[in-house]
Amino acid sequence: MAHSQSTRPTLSIIRKRARVLGISIAAEREAPVLAGAVHLHGAAQRLDHIAGDDEAPPEADGR
Questions:
Q1: What is the DSSP letter of 58?
Q2: Residue 60 reports pLDDT greater than 80
Q3: Which end of the chain is more exposed for a tag (fewer CB within 10 A), N or C?
Q4: Which of 58, 54, 8 is nearest to 34 (CA)?
Q5: What are phi and psi of 17, to 5 degrees?
Q6: Distance separating alpha carbons of residues 14 and 55, to the nearest angstrom
């Protein structure tokens, strides 16, 4: 359940992490990369919720 408290991805965060890893993201690919990161972040939060057997479901991001 390591991802439930992580910060929602932003384009700025993705750019910084990509730069540290030596990855170049083309400007025309930034929007799909961000959408995918937000989707995966939400999925990780939902899985953490299921694994933690929480009472209230988390809010769905980007649905």
A1: P
A2: no
A3: C
A4: 8
A5: -65, -40
A6: 32
Nearest-angstrom CA–CA distance, 51 and 4? 11
One-letter amino acid at 51 equals A
Torsion from C-alpha of 24, 30, 36, 39, nearest 10 degrees: 130
Q: For helices 11-20 and 30-52, give the axis angle rounded to 10 degrees.
A: 100
Tokens matching residue 4: 């439930």
> For the chain, what's the residue count?
63
Q: How far is CA 52 from the centre of its chain?
A: 19
Q: What H or E segment, with its residue span, contains residue 30? A: helix 30-52
- pLDDT tens-digit map of 11-37: 999 999 999 999 999 999 999 999 999
Q: Which two tokens stand for residue 60?
A: 């769905």
